[in-house]
Design brief:
It contains 13 helices and 18 strands. The chain has 390 residues and is α/β, with parallel strands linked by helices. Helix 1 packs across helix 6, helix 6 crosses helix 8 and helix 10 packs antiparallel against helix 11. The protein is globular, with a radius of gyration of 22 Å.
């Protein structure tokens, strides 16, 4: 299963209004250029199921289709595939449509069961059948929690609050998310190795699954570079997803047609800029993903490259880590866990990864007149490492 950030599908793409005949740039234009149909994350499906179930719990009727609002403002509607209402709880199910993406969860039935809790309890999340539980540190949730990631949790909580306000509920509920056959599907993912046991993770930062096609996406990257150059942009940014895009815009104020949605294809950006240079390239992405670039991987997809904890341990040593800390870094469960160990000890592992990634990028550029800097972020978009421009 893909584990990259969900990429933004906005309402317009920069470079001129839609239908104007002008060539558009930016990340939305890249998606349009692929000709592939986007889909919905498990987080969006769980949010829709939660909204329908809580509405039925308060009103006695399931909305079908049920409409939700995604973090970028889109308002998709989902048909219910399952529903059940009892005195104390309600369950709704949504079949995940991943669009043209070869996601192993495509077609899976995502269920949410909502149960009333006493006033003041807030929203509590539980893992039902087919949804995993966190058993190791280094993930964005504490050990013992249901593997429902932070953004889907926020989406579900916000929709619970909206339904409660509309129909007079307290908003104090337990949400149990389950996925039919999820434990079996999870064997095809990295979840067991990461210590997520019992099933799948409920994922998504935008609610949208961008279709994965190597040739189509690499072609869209090239088109994005061409549009940026034609618009006279001298500074472009290769972003791994919507969170890194926001970071770059906040840091440098780049216009949309200077943003390249490189996804996992760092090599495609660098090789094309080698032949079609701009003055400056900023690469921005998650710490773990960019640690792969730092060690020389040009395809950052989780199925084709892995975080090298031994390499991170060596970097930590070069940054002042003693041997016990370096050993902990080398044995860490995830890249994030390695980063957190070093942050606690005052070792600048994020900066060291950014510098190493920049140097690898310059090596791929082979002397092309492109200055490069790298920014590493965590899942929340906080900058955890950066290089100088070289």
């Amino acid at each position: 299963m893909r584990s990259s950030e969900s990429r933004n599908v906005g309402d317009n793409a920069g470079g001129g209004p839609q239908g104007s005949g002008q060539v558009k740039g930016g990340r939305r234009a890249q998606l349009e250029h692929t000709g592939l149909r986007h889909g919905w994350t498990t987080g969006a499906c769980a949010t829709a199921a939660t909204t329908a179930a809580y509405t039925a719990l308060l009103t006695g009727e399931f909305p079908d289709p049920v409409t939700i609002t995604l973090p970028k403002g889109q308002t998709p509607s989902f048909a219910l595939a399952a529903e059940e209402l009892t005195d104390g709880s309600a369950m709704a199910g949504i079949v995940k449509d991943a669009g043209d993406d070869p996601d192993v969860t495509h077609g899976a039935l995502v269920r949410a069961t909502v149960r009333r809790l006493p006033a003041g309890s807030g929203v509590v999340f539980k893992a039902g059948p087919g949804v995993g539980t966190i058993t190791r540190p280094g993930l964005p949730l504490p050990v013992g929690e249901a593997a429902v990631n932070p953004v889907p949790r926020r989406m579900m909580s916000e929709h619970v609050a909206e339904v409660a306000a509309r129909y007079g509920g307290s908003g104090d509920v337990e949400i149990t998310v389950s996925v039919d056959h999820g434990e079996e599907i999870a064997r095809s993912t990295w979840n067991p190795r990461l210590g997520i046991l019992g099933g799948l993770s409920i994922l998504g930062t935008t609610g949208i699954v961008v279709p994965y096609s190597c040739s189509a996406w690499i072609d869209s990257i090239r088109r994005g570079v061409d549009v940026a150059r034609a618009a006279g942009r001298t500074h472009v940014a290769g972003c791994t997803g919507s969170t890194s895009e926001k970071t770059v815009v906040a840091e440098y104020g780049l216009p949309e047609d200077a943003l390249l949605d490189m996804g996992d294809f760092a090599g495609a950006v660098l090789k094309y800029l080698r032949r079609h240079p701009v003055d400056r390239l900023t690469i921005c992405g998650g710490f773990a993903k960019l640690s792969k670039l730092a060690v020389g991987h040009l395809d950052l997809h989780s199925g084709r490259s892995q975080v090298d904890k031994g390499f991170l341990a060596e970097l930590a040593r070069s940054g002042g880590a003693d041997e016990p800390l370096a050993a902990e870094v080398g044995a860490a469960n995830t890249g994030l866990a390695a980063l957190q160990l070093c942050q606690a000890a005052g070792v600048p592992l994020g900066d060291l990864v950014a510098q190493a990634a920049r140097d690898e990028a310059l090596a791929v550029l082979r002397g092309a007149p492109v200055a490069v800097d790298v920014i590493c972020i965590d899942r929340a978009g906080t900058v955890v490492g950066r290089s100088t421009v070289r």
